[in-house]
Amino acid sequence: MNKVLENAEAAAALVPEGATIMMGGFGVCGIPENLIRALHARGTGGLTVISNNAGVDDFGAGILLRARQIKKMVSTYVGENKEFERQFLSGELQVELVPQGTFSERMRAGGAGIAGFFTPTAYGTLVAEGKETRVIDGKGYVLEMPLRADFAFVKAWKGDRLGNLVYRRTARNFNPVMATAGRITIAEVEQLVEPGAIDPDHVVTPGIFVKHILKGERYEKRIEKRTVRGGAA
Fold first, then answer.
1. Which regions of 171-228 does DSSP assign to beta strands (E)?
2. What is the pTM of this model?
3. Proportion of the chain above pLDDT 90, given as a percent
4. Strand ranges inside the chain, DSSP E
């Protein structure tokens, strides 16, 4: 079985208008850059994007946001992006804010077939409004529902032609749980190898979760914030 796509453009062609897409990334780390660029170039719009954050103004999901291709964001952190702020405050963009741990667990539940779970996070806050709550052993909990998507765009360090994936350090972030919760998971990797080249003990995402895989290129690997100290005079 060969799951390899020729390029990111071929992957973007699979995504219809109005699709819901999970996109890996934490800040500017572990982002499926090639898939996002291809989707931007294709102009597919009306998207619901489930991502930890909206990238920055000119990178990651930020380029889709700037081009008005996103109608709704489901995110945990929305700083570092002035265009996100502008669209949200003007009512152009729908936003669902989710606590970060709850965000990850909702996707894990979606991939595992769990119908919902109770968490103490956000109990008694605006996030809990309209949701079922319970007091269990004297502590308040909020019922959270699973997150699933039509597509999951994930970024891995290495993958084989069967879709087995290995991540590298912080770039791992939300990619593994997203890979399980997308109906069609498309992975882009820095290194594409033959089956058997990855030690089975090192596989993080088994190929059974990955529908398509492609080798990315031109990774920027940005540093989100750089702090330097001046040398002695």
1. 182-193, 212-215
2. 0.89
3. 76
4. 20-23, 47-50, 70-75, 94-97, 117-119, 133-136, 139-144, 149-160, 165-166, 182-193, 212-215
